[in-house]
Design goal:
single chain, mainly alpha
Length: about 140
Amino acid sequence: MTDRAESGGDEVSRSMPQPEDPNRPEPPVRPADPAGLIDELTRSGTRLDATLSALGDAEVRAPSRLPGWTRGQVLAHVARGAEAYTWLLAVARNGVEPGPRAGSEALARAVAEAAARPADALAAELRSCSAGSAAGPRTPRSW
């Protein structure tokens, strides 16, 4: 999408998605490979864990590349995201919601509380949350 400031505003409306042609055939659906996706999640978690192991309290409190966020806040947000995916995977696996989801205010409090923890405690929490995402059945039939 072209930025309004660069184009005077006209390009934005022209680059917006147009309605689908109802006579156009649907593209073939390619099934996802859940086991492969979970394997990649596990590999990503291993890389993140190696990075976490090298961080001390000062590094966790330092600014991240995300303006206005510390590294601890980013890591706490990733942990809460992993919990959300674990919740969604539980629904996909079982067809039943495992409990209520936290609202945005509760999520903001949880991120702030986790970000204030020492680096080793924050790393342990993130490891635990990430492990939950990869746990459980890995075959499409069980989903």
